[in-house]
Amino acid sequence: MNLYKEVSKSIISKLKEIPELKDIISTEFLNNITVEIPKVRDFGDFSTNIAMMLTKKLGKKPRDIADILTPYLQQISNVESVSVAGPGFINIKLKDSYIKDTALSDNLEPDTGIKQKIDLDYGGYNVGKNLHIGHLRTTVVGDTFNRIAKFLGHTTKAYNHMGDWGRPMGLIIAWVLENGMPNNVDDVNRMYPASSARAKEDPAWLEKAQKITVELQNGNEEYKKIYDTFIPMSLGQVSKLLTRLNILPFDENKGERLIAEYVPEVQEILDTKGIIEHSDGAEIISVKQDTDTEPMPPVMWKSSAGAQTYAAADLTAIYYREKTDNPDAIVYFTDNRQTLHFKQIFRAARLAGFADGIELQHIGFGTITGADGKPFKTRDGNVPSLDEMINIVADSVRTRVKESGKDLPDETIEMIALAALKFNDLMHDVKSDYIFDVDSVTSFEGRTGPYILYTAVRLNSILKKVGNIPASANCELLPEERDLLMFLLDFNRVTETAFEKRAPYILANYAYDLCKLINTFYHTCPIMRDDIPEDIKAQRLAIVKQSLKVLSQSIELMGLKIPEEM
Ligand code: ARG
């Protein structure tokens, strides 16, 4: 349940009953009242600035208004006390018994509000290139966002917009024609950079690759045969890694190639609307607006060589998604070097009359850097593949575990390593760059994935030791218990905010703060000690159980797994 919403609702409906306000304020005004969760909860669980908002309307000082409102708010059921602070903030404290009962019986069911249909676009891997560090954020954040949306009852469709139909294909095929077929994916991944390097030095080679690309796109059978040989190799590698990363399967791997089928339809619409311009043999769509203060180049619809472009695939994908899914929104997760690209595409889509009533949204990421602030590289100066990244983190975890005198199975090391890598990615606001430091992400202390898993493992082991949990008794709450219960009750609000703001980092940081409160509770409120009376023990075990429920759910939403032991 969303306690925050419940409390806001009760405050608003109580205000509606107050005679002094009746003729003065509209329902709309009341619905806009904000209720806040104070950082320091010493004075109350919730606070509102309603008294300040009413000063003009009532012609009174906020404190005097607060004094009028307080006795009414006091009548709200489950309210323990109402107090006024500072210039007129009203603080509301809930009854302990209510908090306990609600928190301990919360099944985390999301609200039955309006459910949306959302197309998600993340991953977008490229054939001929192994997944590398640059794919970490789109994959991990996209996947977690998908999980959060599904958890809240929204319908999602996750698209992996594969880069599998552009110039890199021509470059690989040109290489194969000269050097023979690849035997495995490593061969494929070597071909693309080699051919691409040659194209930089040798204009004839580049031209050849371009020609092959266009011919492949136009159905050349010889090229298609080669293409069909290396495609499964690349896709196999992608899918193996996604499994390793515990990423939900994509609903559609429809990328540049599969969308090609719809390009002619879109071409016709663009031609009919007269928005295509011809420029040096290329076809472009001008998307500049008078109000632009930054450069806004035209969309390249077709290259001068006649090839389907990156932009054409994205524009056509919007057309296709509207036609097949008609979602409420299409949300793209890529790094922020593509910000301009998506601005252009969204404008072109609107010009073409696509995506009417559909929100088009690009969430752009910052870069993962080394300590020097430059894009992260391995010691030998290479951009690490995602597999290598996981291995680097796993080695660090293994060393730490060994140093602490423990011996954990490889499977567990892998779970911890993935938690370290993924949580570190999730906890940063996507817009900002972050420094990747393997030692700090694998620490078992602080804001890290291992710390979060460790907390869950600890709760699990307490519950396993007790076996059956006795029925919870009604004992007084210590502040640490109360704080924890209040925080547990914040879970649904947090997931809803993370969804609305497209910001999984809100959930990740909630999980960390939750662990901190759990550990404070654990250290100040002993459970299994002999001198703890049975009823208190029962109550604390119930708190442990509910904490584990909320923590496990958060961990699952982040796509992490809890090991048996740590
Ligand atoms: N393949 C692209 C790249 O590596 C990313 C695709 C992002 N998604 C999209 N719809 N364009 O740069």
What does this structure look like?
The chain has 566 residues and is an alpha/beta fold. The chain is 54% helix and 10% strand. It contains 24 helices and 13 strands. It has helices at residues 3-17, 19-22, 27-31, 50-53, 55-58, 62-74, 96-105, 136-151, 167-179, 185-201, 203-217, 221-244, 256-259, 263-273, 310-324, 339-351, 386-403, 410-427, 438-441, 449-466, 479-488, 491-500, 504-524, 534-557; strands spanning 35-36, 46-48, 79-85, 89-94, 117-121, 155-159, 276-279, 282-285, 299-302, 329-335, 359-365, 368-369, 434-435. The strands form 4 sheets. A 4-stranded antiparallel β-sheet has the order 1-2-4-3. Strand 3 and strand 4 form a beta hairpin. The longest helix has 24 residues, at 221-244. It is globular, with a radius of gyration of 28 Å. Bound molecules: arginine (ARG). The site of arginine has 8 residues, from strand 10. Arginine binds at residues 121, 124, 126, 161, 163, 314, 332, 334.
Tell me briefly what this model is.
The protein has helices at residues 3-17, 19-22, 27-31, 50-53, 55-58, 62-74, 96-105, 136-151, 167-179, 185-201, 203-217, 221-244, 256-259, 263-273, 310-324, 339-351, 386-403, 410-427, 438-441, 449-466, 479-488, 491-500, 504-524, 534-557; strands at 35-36, 46-48, 79-85, 89-94, 117-121, 155-159, 276-279, 282-285, 299-302, 329-335, 359-365, 368-369, 434-435. It is an alpha/beta fold and 566 residues long. Strands 1-2-4-3 form a 4-stranded antiparallel β-sheet. A 4-stranded parallel β-sheet has the order 6-5-10-11, sandwiched between helices.
